[in-house]
Amino acid sequence: MAAYEYDEAGVMATYFLITFLALILIPLTLSSFGKGSEKITHGCDCEACVLQRAQSKKREQGSLLSPKLTKKTYFVIVGWAVFAIACYRASQLKVTSKVYDPFEILGISSSATEKEIKSHYKKLSRAFHPDKVKPTAELTLEAIQDKFVQITKAYKSLTDETIRKNWLEWNNPDGPQSTSMGIALPKWIVESKNNIWVLGVYGLLFGGALPLLVGRWWFGNRQKTKDGIHANSAAAFFKTISEEATTEEVVSALGKAFKWEIPESKEAQAELDELEKTIQQKVGQQYAEVKKLTRDVNGELHVSRRRALILIYAHLTRLPINSTSLQNEQRQILLQTPLLLNALLNVSASRNWLTPTLAIMRINSYLAQALPPNAPTRVRLTQLPGVSKADIDSFSPRPREMTEVLSALEEKGDGRVGTVRKAISKWGRVEIVDAAFKVIGERVVAPSSIIFLVVKLRLTPPGSDTERKDVSVDEAKRIVQYNEKKDEEFLLAKQEAEDLPKSRSTGWAHAPHWPSSRKPTWWLVLGDEKQNRVVVPPVRISDIPYADPESDRDYRTYKIQFQGPPSTGVFTWKLFVVSDTFVAEEASKDLTLTIEHPPAVDQEPSEDEISEPDEDSLAGQMAAMRGGPVKKRRDEESDEESGTDDDEESDDDSSSDSDSD
After folding, report:
1. 483 Rama sector, left if φ>0, alpha if ψ -120 to 50, beta otherwise
2. pLDDT on residue 186
């Protein structure tokens, strides 16, 4: 019969707590260390970008005296503190051994002989006999008697056959004992006087806190889409976006989402009103149109939407903000725009609309560089660090390229030359080296076949030299063969982007006005401009290498898999490579896909086909008896032919004789 024992000393409960915490804290801590992505140490080195990255890092991590820690970090720290306390407590606990060892009790070696055991027992019995040992304050009579009983049992366990058998079989000289099961709970938890409190705690945990957490998680997930935005925001995107959506409509759709994405606030209202007045003066009709499109059906403009639009346009027009609360709110809104724009892009791409798809992509770069949408060329040049629109207007002739701005600054001996040159050297101007349609193992593209769009890209900053140095004929052949081999291997591989050394990755982009460090990415999209249709949904790529004339392969290859049209014909499409960081730095290329039926295979007799048997063979005779075809002998055929010729000659002679008559 089992006997249950409560852990009055807290020994088992302590070890249970240590085990439970270890199972949770160890993987949680390892995931925290491994969560951080690979550190990027290179990128744009202009002064504005270096300062912006330092400020962003300080905001995200805090200082040494006031570090910014996440809830997860706090949980891990508190958990390890409790774990350390539990370990210390366990080290102070005294645990009695449950393994019965008579040799240990007698204090002799396990290899001792029976004579040595008896001799040692006599010494111990004289020393610990209750009649010969006087009790003291530290050694009570009960302790003396227990010690003598243990010595006697240990001696009999080694000398008496019955008791020895009980010890070997049941680990106890008295034979089998009742089963004892320990419970890792302190005894006070199950005491009757504490029942009310224990049940109350259980009721709060399992009847209140647990359903609340599960309900919050469940209903919270139901309110979010797979893109991570509010379900109402996604519904607003579907209703707002249209096939011919303009940039203003895209911005208004983005503004509508903030009704559900950010909490309603009324802080710094006076400064917000002043910002709106300044925006109306600088942007004018565009802001008024966006604000009008953002209103509800009843004509009302939600407070959160208005605040979001004002703060977004304050960023696009580079207006300074004094209020700390508005700065934090603007930062929160801007950092949320990529997620919302990605969801909006999925809505547009799911309907195969090309115009709004390209507009949504381009909005990302305007936000990254803090420029108004559809900005003219002279405004786009203000992406360069420290260069304003007034600077562009002061140059004569007015520059239209970044290299011209750099030349104008050099002529003036301006101190901004160095930082502008650094920004241009890491500029993300993309170049399409090559783009083609490929079908594995086929020369022609058949209807409904699996097609790969293979694109080779590289970055060529303004003014960079991409011309390869003169090489010998053998070296040129080697480079061509090397690239062809690489292309073939990549086409057969499963990966969508060619492997790139870490040293050639893009690094941080030039984005001094973006509220955090930004790594540039690009979209690849194949579209039909005539029909305004997306042929292949957008694919996001990153780490396009910079052009290097000294390298045998200074580009990176990407591929997109899609199913070809089901009908034959010639399809004229266009490939777009759009940047999410650099304004107006995109590339495009017209592509032609010819779909045709594969060539018919010649119907030649197979080598496996059985020919007709000869007439004079056994198989031929049997075939002739059955009425089947047989091959005639060549001499008969020749005789028949000669006979036919003779007949023809005789006919000719007779005809000639008749003519002479």
Report:
1. alpha
2. 67
Q: Which long-range contacts (CB under 8 A, 24 or more apart) does 83-87 make?
A: 83/18, 83/21, 83/22, 83/25, 86/14, 86/17, 86/18, 86/21, 87/18
pLDDT number for residue 643: 47
CA distances from 210 to 17, 205, 219, 221, 279 (A): 20, 6, 14, 17, 49
Whole-number Å distance between alpha carbons of 431 and 548: 13
Phi, psi of 589 (to 5 degrees): -155, 135
Structure tokens at 366: 């305007």
- Who wins on pLDDT, 469 or 611? 469
Q: What is the pLDDT of residue 315?
A: 95
Query: CB of 232 within 8 A of CB of 260?
Result: yes
Higher-pLDDT residue of 73 and 435 is 435
Give how far the C-alpha of residue 332 lies from the chain's centroid of Cα atoms, to the nearest Å.
22
pLDDT tens per residue across span 551-576: 889 899 999 999 999 999 999 999 99
Token pair recorded at residue 447 = 């209807």
What is the C-alpha separation between 488 and 63, in angstroms, rounded? 51
What's the pLDDT tens digit per position in 96-121?
545 667 777 778 877 778 788 888 88
> Do 155 and 117 meet the contact criterion of CB atoms below 8 Å apart?
yes
CB 657: neighbour CB atoms within 10 A?
9
3-class DSSP state of 615: coil
Q: Residue written as tokens 């249970």?
A: 16
State the average pLDDT for the chain.
83
Distances (CA, A) of 91 to 14, 18, 25, 83, 265: 10, 12, 20, 12, 53
Measure the CA–CA gap between 374 and 290, rounded to whole angstroms.
14
Provide the 3-class DSSP secondary structure of residue 124: helix
Please spell the DSSP secondary structure of 450-487, one letter per residue.
EEEEEEEEEE--TT---PPPP--HHHHHHHHHHHHHHH
pTM over 0.85: no
- Higher pLDDT: 2 or 631? It is 631
What distance in Å separates the CA atoms of residue 552 and residue 548, rounded to the nearest whole number? Answer: 9
For 318: left if phi > 0, alpha if psi spans -120 to 50, otherwise beta; the answer is left
From residue 283, give the alpha-carbon distance in Å to each of 142, 247, 319. Answer: 97, 14, 12
Residue type present at position 152: T
* 165, pLDDT greater than 80: no
Per-residue pLDDT, 489:
92
What are the DSSP calls for 82-108, one per residue?
HHHHHHHHHHH---------HHHHHT-
Mean pLDDT of the 1-7 span: 54
